[in-house]
Amino acid sequence: MTSEQSVEPESSSEETAKPRHAGFAYTLGRSLITPLARLVYRPRIEGRENVPLDGPVIFASNHLSFIDSIAIPVAAPRPVHFLAKSSYFEGTGFQGWMSKTFFESIGAIPVRRGAGQAALDALDLQRQLLDEGLAVALYPEGTRSTDGRLYKGRTGVAFLALQTGAPVVPVGLIGTDKVMPVGAKVPTLKERITVRFGEPLDLSPHGPATSGRARRLATDEIMAAIHALSGQELAGIYNEAPAQSTIEKIKQALPHERR
């Protein structure tokens, strides 16, 4: 694919520095899917030089489409892991095998989604990946934006960065919602996307991970960097499903930390 900055072939050092989680499917996906996706979708990739090539790093991105989790690994100059619903890995028959193989090939790691303990388990898994010196991709908004606006960030990404000391590389994705809108079965080949990597953020000056104020300030810095890259309209609110009960409405109205 072409880009506003030339996309050089991966160097041998990058190709051999495979994470411990890499198996045959990941190796195959890294060597085949990445160049194929670049050839077909011709993404504009900016700021690849901002990405540290080794050590732990958190990619914090806006979230517009299902293919965001493909666009980032395809554009990044190093392997990237992200969490995906465990149901993608648990299917049976040929279709189940295809789904599992595909998600493994793009660096996905299965996790059970949900609040409470499930959310804590997911956060702990991401911390383990960072402790191993790997790169993970996360969406501070929590879920996809269906109207194209950039929503307020939840503090989980900042907590992870402050806890591990990993730098945060902000990512601005543009056009992925046009290539594959919410609800679409397959992506279109008529549109191009842009992937912008910003300069790494050191969030440690905000304070420790145990401080709610530090987490909030760090999150706001991350979201400001993403906004500068994506140019989206700011929603000014959290991206969450409408409350279904009176109690849920009260909980959403009360000030509390979204994680």
From TrEMBL:
Residues 1-20 are annotated as: Disordered. InterPro entries: Plipid/glycerol_acylTrfase (IPR002123). GO terms for molecular function: acyltransferase activity. Keywords: Acyltransferase, Transferase. Residues 1-10 have a biased composition (Low complexity). Residues 57-176 form the Phospholipid/glycerol acyltransferase domain. It comes from the Bacteria. Coiled coil: none annotated. SUPFAM superfamilies: Glycerol-3-phosphate (1)-acyltransferase. The keyword Transferase applies. Pfam families: Acyltransferase. This is 1-acyl-sn-glycerol-3-phosphate acyltransferase. It comes from Microbacterium algeriense.
